[in-house]
Design goal:
two-stranded antiparallel sheet; about 75% helix; single chain; mainly alpha; about 325 residues
């Protein structure tokens, strides 16, 4: 039902990667133009600031600050003596590469740990200082703004996903935000919402119905947000999905209750609780419960059928064991 209306669930990570590559391609010429600007950028004050922090820094923070400080220097060979010395980078192209590397560093998985967050707080400050210096070059400022506009699409994917996943934005807030987006960001937001909804549907098929109720229920805030994004046509689909989820929950409850009753009836009537191979009995009891639901035969008949099958299976296994001695 979900796919027939909205198509396959979007691959959120693939979508975000595609947006990033598109942004890089669209701004490649703009950054080349910015790199051609040879205005020197003085970051000596930033180096001094890093050195001050290194006086008391320890552990991962000290290690990262030393690493980042190294990014700011390049090796220069003296044409006369041939000696190699460290020289502070001051051109847009080199410092742009440093900024890219720092962005990558701050997005690594270890940044999520408490120690990582503390260390990367200092790195983030360095990144901001480099960014400020780069943006004094008009061409770099323009390139960054163009890149950011493309990345709004990626932010839309994340926003849409979190709207459904977290369910913590009311319909007025969502309407205000969604209606203010550019068309391409709206489409990205809808893809994010579909990805999150698809995840919920997938989990509901595995027995996790809480998430499905949160979005498909008539009073759910996500339902209102979903309908605002996709139109009133989506309401019929959501209603159908909600009914399907409710049916699945009821069906599981009936089957589970029937299985339990059948198992207990077998054990009490035929004493199979004393048989060591109890899994065979419960398995057959479950089959009996399903037969009850499908064919309507009485519970006593189904438990008898289950006990006969179980006893037969135990006998076969016992004979095989005997022959194997």
């Amino acid at each position: 039902l979900f796919e027939s209306k909205f198509g396959p669930k979007p691959d959120l990570e693939a979508e975000k990667e595609a947006v990033h590559k598109a942004a890089q391609k669209a701004t490649s010429g703009d950054y080349k133009l910015a790199h051609a600007n040879k205005t020197p950028l003085d970051l000596s004050n930033l180096v001094d600031d890093i050195d001050k922090k290194l006086v008391n820094a320890v552990g991962e923070k000290a290690s990262l600050l030393k690493e980042v400080k190294g990014y700011l220097f390049k090796d220069v060979k003296d044409p006369t003596t041939g000696e190699i010395s460290k020289v502070l980078k001051n051109d847009a192209a080199s410092l742009h590469e440093v900024r890219i590397e720092l962005d990558s560093l701050m997005n690594k998985p270890e940044a999520k740990t408490s120690a990582g967050k503390n260390a990367l707080g200092a790195v983030s400050n360095v990144r901001d200082k480099i960014d400020e210096a780069l943006k004094t070059i008009p061409e770099m400022q323009a390139a960054d703004e163009k890149f950011a506009k493309h990345m709004d699409v990626k932010n839309g994917l994340d926003f849409g996903y979190n709207v459904i996943k977290k369910g913590n934005i009311n319909k007025e807030e969502f309407k205000r935000a969604f209606d203010s987006f550019e068309p391409e960001v709206k489409e990205a937001t809808k893809k994010g919402m579909l990805a999150a909804t698809g995840d919920i549907v997938d989990k509901s098929t595995q027995g996790e119905l809480t998430g499905a109720e949160r979005i498909f229920g008539k009073k759910a805030v996500n339902r209102a947000n979903f309908i605002h994004a996709f139109g009133t046509d989506a309401e019929d689909v959501l209603q159908g999905l909600h009914k399907e989820m409710v049916f699945r929950g009821t069906e599981r409850g009936v089957i589970h209750g029937s299985q339990t009753a059948a198992n207990e009836a077998v054990k009490s009537r035929y004493g199979v609780g004393r048989v060591t191979n109890e899994s065979s009995v419960t398995g057959e009891a479950a089959k009996g419960a399903v037969i009850d639901l499908i064919s309507g035969i009485g519970p006593i008949a189904s438990t008898i059928l289950a006990s006969k099958r179980a006893a037969s299976g135990i006998g076969i296994k016992y004979s095989e064991n005997r022959l194997g001695q």
